[in-house]
Amino acid sequence: MTVLSRGLDLLEKALFTLAAVALTAMTGVILLQVFLRYVVNSPTSWSEEFATLCFVWCVMLVIPLGLRHQEHISMEFLVHRIAGARWRWAQILLNAVVGLTIVAIGVASFGLFASGARQTLPGISMSSGLEIPLIVMYVSVPIGCFAAGLYALERIVLLSRGQITGPTSPGAATSEEELI
C-alpha cells in the first residue's frame, strides 16, 4: 500500500465522517423543527437554512465516495458489451472525462465565492447574532469536486497498472458487485 493510497483512504474516512455528521445534524434539526412547529407551536427561523447547509455539505462530501466505489449511475448495458483491454481503455476514458468535468465544476465554483462572501444566511444569522456568509455553503463545492477528481485519477492509475480488471468476455460480469 503506497503513501498516496493511504492518504486517499484517510481522506475517504474523513469525508465519510463529516458527511455522517452533516446528515445527523440535518436530521436532528428537521426533527426538532417538526416538534417545535406542531407540538410546541413555536417554530424556529433558522432550521430550514441549517438543514439546507448540512444537506449541501453532505452531498458534496459523498460524491467523491460514490466515484471511488463506482456507486454512481452508469450505462451497464454498454459497459458489459466490451471486455478485456477495450473495457480497460473505456474505463480510463470514462474516468478521465468524469474527473475533468468534475474538476472543471470545482474550478468554476470559485466564481461564486465573491457573491457568497457578500451574502449571509439570514435565518441563521438573525437567530445566532453572527453574520454567517453564504460562502460557508459554497466552499463545499470545490472541496467535493477536487476530492472526486483525486479518486477519478486514482482509478485511472489503478486501471492503467492492471490492478482493476473487468469482464473477460463481453456480457460477463466479474463480480457480484458489478451485477448490481
Structure description:
The protein is an all-alpha fold. The chain has one domain. It contains nine helices and no strands. Helix 1 packs antiparallel against helix 2, helix 2 runs parallel beside helix 8 and helix 4 runs antiparallel to helix 8.
Helix proportion: over 70%
Q: Largest beta sheet, briefly?
A: none
Helix and strand element order: HHHHHHHHH
Q: Into how many domains do the coordinates divide?
A: 1
User: Helix segment count?
Assistant: 9
Dominant shape: elongated
Radius of gyration using CA atoms only: 21 Å
| Low-confidence parts | none
Distance from N terminus to C terminus (CA atoms, Å) equals: 28 Å
User: Which structural class is indicated by helix and strand composition?
Assistant: mainly alpha
Number of strands: 0
- Average the pLDDT over all residues and give the rounded result: 88
Report the portion of residues in β strands. Answer: under 5%
Give the key terms.
180 residues; mainly alpha; 9 helices; 72% helix; 0% strand
Summary, kept brief:
The chain contains 9 helices and no strands.
SSE topology sketch:
Elements: H1 3-38, H2 47-68, H3 76-79, H4 84-109, H5 113-118, H6 122-128, H7 135-138, H8 140-160, H9 176-179
Helix pairs in contact: 1-2, 2-8, 4-8
